[in-house]
Design goal:
heterodimer; A: about 500 residues; mainly alpha; 21 helices; about 75% helix; B: two-stranded antiparallel ribbon; NADH-quinone oxidoreductase subunit L (chain B); NADH-quinone oxidoreductase subunit N (chain A)
Chain lengths: ~500, ~650
């Protein structure tokens, strides 16, 4: 075996290296040393993130064609890393609380392992490796969801998560076994693409497609595979909820794109365009309709993230380089906007234990800066200019309409109408904070510096990403430099 | 040229704005003031370096065979919508932008320094300096814009900072309404500007100034002779663009905001509403000058608007009591002077005219000198207001003994604006009048008359403030000269107003096509008549106002209706009030409001109700039991497969 192939998987090695260091540190350090575990991990991870941003991706198929790290996957990994870094910052206070401090090492280790799994998910060019990535990104998450050992809701959430995850994996594997049969015994994306482009659309393929959509749709919480989302988001510790809603989704979305465009690209217009069409409309609309009535912030964010996933999926509908670039940009913006909101939610929860929307009434009187950050996050999620969310929506919409088909115009129109609905519920939060005349329930407090750093990063991202064109150009260039796999169809 | 210095010119003020705006609350007033002054001083130094490099270095980028070039230091793509629709941000160096860099940073620095004394003890001192920095940033960005869209962006930013500064005393209702008025009127004008920009760029496929102005014939050809309501599309575009300039430069009938803008702090009036922002309209016309030259109708329009405005404002200025309003109307009148001067210029050699671009050069020259002496006059007025705590000349009189520095510098300002040799105003005004006479004797004669009126109302104010009769209040509260922070800018600007006319080879530096022009003064035809007119006007003012007498009352009672009308600014505000309140609000807005409430709102409410109902109807899906979840899951996957199968095969 040629060991130099490992040189291609630098991001994975970095994350694995950080994992090993944290693991060793956690296992062998004395009581005193454990106190600096949090800053140690955070700083190490920050350095790793910078390294992934800076190190070039070679874009070569290695390990017998199973793995590739091209500029697109590298860009996504870097983006996800930024998200995880923010999650680490916002959770730094929480992991030091009495209940979890003793197990904080596990928290970091499990997150790093799932991140490693997500890396494999997007870099895999073989279904076996993809499944391994998917599973290692799913199973440890159940442990993380159950992290609040003493809370009943946390257990319930974990059970719901693991049950649905297992079920979705089973469905995905059934789908893949059909694919295996269809391709005549290969699970390589390339082989599959060739077989499909030569063959006919058959019932077998359609069932396979539906099951693969369902299987990955679980991670993205597409409707109707989303029902676990709200309960799990509500029950899980807030740090995990934010991780689930952003990082896990971002990786799954790009993996979805790669699988569908690279493997099944040939039957885009015959089969899965319309499947996805329906799924996206359902996802955005149902997510919105549920979000309208939520009173618990974490539950509210769960439905908001379902609807956002629908918008991300629009990039897959475009099924070209612009769509992928739009997705990457959308994910990046979504990382800062959603994590900005979650950073505020978790800060408030840590201090007061309150997560109801009504608890936020009059927040601006006591905590103006938190209200400000939350408002920006809501504006960005709703897509109000000039914040980043507006530009990410515009770009992903343009990528869809760029194909010129009227059906896709209709899709964008429906998405736009849904944006108006989403505006309503995002502004409910803003209204609660700024306009509601009630006496504020939350006392004035000073949040931990790590949380403040997280919020500042997010606010800066929300304000700057739209106005500074380099971020989108970065995504676009990354996609352009790795377009070769798209040439297959 | 290296990119560092130009970018610093913009970066320092915006950084100052952010630092003072965000951190200002936490720092002491002194600290904020010093920071602001140092920031602006540095910017001014850099701007001077850039301007001097541009004019005198002889670099091939800037000057080729004695002809000054336009040079884009940088021009990066900001937003790229399609291949042709690209919004860029850049830095254009050419004679007028280099000149404006000098003007803006000089005045801004002086005002920063002056404000340190003037605004001492005011609440919101830090906020004031933050807004000043924001304004300086916007104005600098406006003048160095490489394309008309960038100019538009900064144009609006300038409007916003002007709004913020006029409304600085936000507890005073008059200041609040003045700031609203300024913003709405200029914003309304900018609508025309935007339409003009869109029209122009639609036909020419470019926003870039160099593309537009280097080949105006192409611009003319690109519209393909399209016309609308009897005028060519290009005429419409250029007139609409000029509308934006009319709004900012307070030309009739959009002048109504400027006198009210005097509610802002006086140094702000000096910086924004006398020296820099209000000349943006003139700058805009100068920037697009070659294009205007191919559209005769637009040029005539500019001339007419300018000539009417100049006269109107001069007459109104003769009947005002508030010294800042007198200066405001004088500003309107002088800017109109520059507009006419631009309007009479040609871009091609004309027979019998020794230099066809004279009007352009003179207009820019007057912009420069006017900025200096008008800022001086405003700062002087600020010193007076500081001393007697009133804006009206009725609270002043005989101040020359109490405030010698203010008196002498103010006198220099008045002489400069009246156009007396050898002060700055004489040289620029003389060139402007020469250009007007060269076009047609009517323009020259008309504007000479306006110049005479200028001399009269300025000296009317001067005598009423510094001579006339000592106000009895001085016994209780003795007025005195301002502190050094305020006197230094006055002395500096007075010195500049004395020398910049004859010492500065302006024609060598700033001309429309970059070729140097040697200024020579036409004594017999233009200069002597205009000086004589000014002297007669000053003499008249002396007779009427140098000491207390009843001559002014007699003159006033000779035709009281006229005096009242002029004092009430010929009822323009009332006309606007009638149109907006009686016609627009009552008739148009009410019907729109009805439609809004009963049709649009009702539809939206309907949508909201449907959403709520739908949301309520599907709540059962989320029942909470895991069995149901998985059942939905499986059903979803199977249904997806089944429906697709049925539809496709």
């Amino acid at each position: 075996m040629d060991y130099s192939q490992f040189g291609s998987m630098i991001p994975e090695l970095i994350v694995l290296g950080i994992f090993m260091l944290v693991f060793l540190f956690d296992t062998f350090s004395c009581e005193k040393g454990k106190k600096i575990l949090t800053p140690f991990t955070t700083i190490l991870f920050g350095l790793g993130t910078i390294a992934i941003w800076l190190l070039p991706a070679d874009g070569e198929l290695v390990f017998g064609g199973m793995y590739i790290n091209d500029t697109t996957t590298n860009a996504l990994k870097a983006i996800l890393n930024v998200g995880v870094f923010i999650v680490f910052l916002q959770s730094a206070k929480w992991v030091e609380s009495d209940e979890v401090a003793i197990r904080k090492g596990e928290f970091y280790e499990l997150i790093l392992v799932t991140l490693f799994g997500m890396y494999l998910m997007v870099s895999a060019r073989h279904f076996l490796l993809f499944i391994i990535g998917l599973e290692s990104a799913s199973l440890p998450l159940a442990a993380l969801v159950a992290f609040n050992k003493n809370h009943y809701e946390s257990h319930e959430a974990a059970i719901k998560y693991i049950m649905t995850a297992v079920f979705s994996s089973a469905l995905l594997l059934v789908g893949l076994s059909f694919v295996y049969a269809f391709s005549g015994g290969s699970l390589y994306f390339d082989d599959l693409a060739i077989t499909i482009s030569q063959g006919q659309t058959s019932g077998l393929l359609i069932v396979a497609l539906a099951f693969v959509i369902a299987g990955i749709g679980f991670k993205l919480s597409l409707v109707p595979f989303h029902l676990w989302t709200a309960d799990v988001y509500q029950g899980a510790p807030t740090a995990i909820t934010s991780y689930l809603s952003v990082i896990s989704k971002g990786a799954a979305a790009v993996a979805f794109f790669i699988i569908f465009v690279q493997c099944f690209g040939a039957v885009y217009s015959e089969a899965w365009e319309w499947m996805l069409y329906g799924i996206i409309i359902l996802t955005i609309t149902v997510g919105n309709l549920f979000a309208v009535r939520q009173k618990n912030m974490k539950r509210f964010m769960a439905f908001s993230s379902i609807s956002q996933a629908g918008y991300i999926m629009l990039g897959v509908m475009a099924a070209d380089g612009l769509g992928l670039a739009g997705m990457l940009f959308y994910i990046f913006v979504y990382v800062v906007s959603n994590l900005g909101a979650f950073a505020v939610i978790s800060t408030i929860e840590d201090k007061t234990g309150l997560v109801g929307m009504d608890d936020y009434n009059g927040l601006h009187k006591t905590n103006p800066w938190l209200s400000f950050a939350m408002t920006l996050a809501m504006f960005s999620l709703a897509g109000i200019p000039p914040f980043a969310g507006f530009f990410s929506k515009i770009l992903i919409f343009t990528s869809v309409t760029g194909t010129g088909s009227w059906a896709l115009y209709m899709l964008v129109l429906i998405a736009l109408i849904n944006t108006i609905i989403s505006l309503y519920y995002y502004l409910l939060v803003v209204k609660a904070m700024w306009i509601s005349a009630d006496e504020p329930k939350i006392e004035t407090f000073r949040s931990a510096c790590s949380a403040r750093a997280a919020i500042w990063i997010c606010v800066a991202g929300i304000v700057l990403f739209g106005l500074v064109p380099y971020i989108y150009e970065y995504c676009y260039d990354a996609v352009q430099n790795s377009l070769s796999f798209l040439l297959l169809f | 040229m290296d990119i560092t210095l130009p970018i610093l010119i913009l970066a320092i003020p915006i950084t100052m704005f952010l630092v003072l705006g965000i951190g200002g609350v936490k720092m002491s007033k002194k600290m904020a003031g010093i920071l602001g002054i140092i920031g602006m001083g540095t910017t001014a130094t850099i701007a001077y370096t850039v301007a001097i490099t541009y004019f005198f270095s002889g670099d091939a980028n800037f000057i080729i065979d004695g002809v000054r070039q336009q040079y884009q230091v940088f021009d990066f793509t900001w937003l790229s919508f399609t291949d042709t629709l690209v919004v860029k941000l850049g830095f254009l160096l050419d004679p007028i932008s280099a000149m404006m860099l000098v003007v803006i940073t000089t005045i801004s620095f002086m005002v920063h320094l002056y404000s340190w004394g003037y605004m001492e003890g005011e609440q919101g001192f830090q906020r004031y300096y933050a807004f000043l920095s924001l304004f300086s940033f916007s104005m600098l960005g406006l003048v160095v814009a490489t394309n008309i869209f960038q100019m538009y962006i900064f144009w609006e930013l300038v409007g916003v900072s002007s709004y913020l500064l006029i409304g600085f005393y936000y507890k005073l209702p008059s200041a609040v309404s003045a700031s609203k008025k300024a913003f709405i009127v200029t914003r309304f004008a900018d609508l025309g500007f935007l339409i003009g920009i869109l029209l122009l760029s639609f036909y020419t496929d470019t926003f870039n100034f160099m593309d537009l102005t280097s080949n105006p014939e192409r611009v003319l050809a690109s519209t393909g002779g399209a016309s609308f309501m009897g005028a060519s599309v290009l005429t419409w575009a250029m007139v609409l663009i000029f509308t934006g300039g009319m709004g900012k430069s307070a030309m009739m009938p959009l002048h109504i905001w400027l006198p009210d803008a005097m509610e802002g702090p006086t140094p702000v009036s000096a910086l924004i509403h006398a020296a820099t922002m209000v000349v943006a309209g003139v700058y805009l016309v100068a920037r697009m000058f070659p294009v205007y030259c191919v559209v005769d109708a637009a040029m005539t329009f500019i001339c007419c608007v300018g000539a009417i405005t100049a006269f109107y404002a001069a007459v109104v200025a003769c009947a005002q009591i508030d010294i800042k309003r007198i200066l405001a109307f004088s500003t309107i009148s002088q800017i109109a002077f520059m507009m006419v001067s631009l309007g009479v210029a040609y871009d091609k050699p004309i027979e019998g005219v020794h230099y066809s671009g004279l009007g352009y050069m003179a207009g820019m020259f007057h912009l420069f000198t006017h900025a200096m002496f008008k800022a001086l006059l405003f700062l002087g007025a600020g010193a007076l207001i500081h001393a007697v705590h009133s804006n009206n000349y009725t609270a002043m009189g005989g101040l020359r003994k109490y405030m010698p520095i203010t008196h002498w510098t103010f006198l220099i300002g008045c002489l400069a604006i009246a156009g007396i040799w050898p002060f700055a105003g004489f040289f620029s005004k003389d060139e402007m009048l020469a250009a007007m006479f060269a076009r047609h004797w009517f323009w020259g004669a008309w504007m000479t008359m306006v110049a005479g009126l200028t001399a009269f109302y300025m000296f009317r104010m001067y005598f009423l403030v510094f001579w006339w009769e000592e106000n009895p209040h001085y016994k209780e509260h003795k007025p005195h000269d301002a502190p050094w922070q305020m006197s230094v800018p006055l002395l500096f600007l007075a010195a500049v107003s004395c020398v910049c006319g004859w010492a500065l080879p302006f024609g060598e530096l700033v001309t429309w096509n970059g070729e140097p022009y040697h200024i020579h003064i036409e004594w017999v035809k233009v200069a002597i008549p205009s000086i004589l007119t000014a002297c007669v006007a000053i003499a008249l003012a002396y007779v009427m106002y140098h000491k207390k007498n009843d001559l002014p009352t007699k003159v006033k009672n000779f035709w009281p209706t006229l005096w009242t009308a002029a004092n009430r600014r010929f009822y323009w505000d009332e006309i606007y009030m009638f149109i907006t309140h009686k016609i627009i609000f009552n008739i148009i807005c009410k019907s729109i409001a009805w439609f809004d409430r009963h049709v649009i709102d009702a539809t939206m409410d309907g949508f909201a109700k449907i959403t709520q109902k739908a949301s309520y109807a599907i709540r059962g899906m989320q029942a909470g039991t895991i069995q149901a979840y998985v059942a939905w899951y499986l059903a979803g996957a199977v249904a997806l497969a089944a429906i697709t199968w049925i539809c496709l095969i």
